Amino acid sequence: MFGAFPSAVYAQLPSFPFDIRSLIQQADRRTLRERADELITKRNDYAGAIPCLEKWLSAVPGDAEAAMLLSTCYDSVGRTADARLAMNLALADGLKTREQADRDFPPLFHKQVRWGRSRVLYPAVMKKGEQYRLVLLLHGNGHTPEFMLSWAKTLGLDKAIFICPEAPYMKVRETVTSQRERYSAAGESLGMPDSLFGEIIDLSAEWYHDVAMDAMQRLPVARNLKPIIVGFSQGGFYAHVLATRHPEAYASIVSICASMYTAGHVTEKYDRLRTYGVDALVLHGTKDDVVPLQTGELIHSAMEAARVQHVYMPFDGGHWPSAEATVMIRRWMIEHDR
Fold first, then answer.
1. What positions does the domain Phospholipase/carboxylesterase/thioesterase occupy (predicted)?
2. Is the distance from CB of 227 to CB of 134 less than 8 angstroms?
3. pLDDT for 56-82, tens place per residue?
């Protein structure tokens, strides 16, 4: 990714003579890796951890996690070029380890029930006796709840409580390279076969739905007002999945630059939205180079064919809601609170 070979990192690491006598006499018997971990976690001493990790990697060059830590340490002291080399090493070793493990021990995949995390955005001022509507906000592939909630703040809605769950799968490589958490609801990092994609969609959708239903019980929202789903990109796709699978539970959909996958079997279930009176605001950027405008047109056509009450708004912009689109979303949300 950074245009350098991992071997360049090895070439820069110094060699160290081995002396068994000094090792026997050494009072501190912790490994260099353990010392580096302690310097980072307990003292926040990234500069001090660098020589420990350099020596450790000269002895254990296949430790991808140590290479990633070294990259973080280099970056913290302004050694950007070295940080990129160490990150390349971490990625290369991690990929080799994964490929070798798959060859030696073929993987099996199993359904899993586990705890997950979401984040909540409350109105700036909570008023006693006010009825607040729950908004389930779904982020895009490789994003985080904080990213979407920061945008939701700009809507300035004082009668809505937003809850944004993390997509259930961490994107490991993107998380490592950016040094920030990145999530997806597609499970790419696990290397699962395409034949499981439909089940991945099922499980991710149920996780999102469970979050919404749990929030209806735990947050100070009006239980007589059904939640609205707002989703961006991959989250926009899941907004359609949730509404077509649980149309009795939701009031409306707002999808922004939504992707669409045939494995989700969404368009053939749009008649359920009409049956339960779920309407939709579908927005898509005319210059979107991530999810093409044709996807928005497809959603619009399928909803028209199913006679779903909806508004389709192509906006002048790319793969993110423009100011015009954001104003339209705000109006839509306010209209649904009347």
1. 127-308
2. yes
3. 888 888 788 888 889 989 999 999 999
CATH of 118-335, one of 3.30.360.10, 3.40.50.1820, 3.40.50.2300, 3.10.350.10: 3.40.50.1820
Strands (E), the chain: 118-121, 133-138, 160-165, 169-170, 183-184, 228-232, 252-256, 279-285, 310-315
How many C-beta atoms lie closer than 10 Å to residue 321's C-beta? 22
Residue with tokens 């003579």: 17
Could you report how far apart the first and last alpha carbons of the chain are, in Å? 51
pTM, entire model: 0.73
List, as one string, the DSSP characters of 161-226: EEEEEPPSEE-HHHHHHHTS--EESS-GGGT--GGGHHHHHHHHHHHHHHHHHHHHHHSS--TTS-
- Which top CATH class is 7-104? mainly alpha
**CATH fold match for the domains 7-104 and 118-335:** no
pLDDT surpassing 90 at residue 288:
yes
Mind listing the pLDDT tens digit for each residue in 166-189? 999 888 767 765 667 888 888 887
- The first and second tokens of residue 23, run together, are 């090792």
Per DSSP, helices labelled H in 105-160 are 145-153
Residues in a beta bridge with 279 = 252
> By C-alpha distance, which of 316, 318, 309, 312 is closest to 336?
309
- Would you kindly state where each structural domain of the chain is located, as residue ranges? 7-104, 118-335
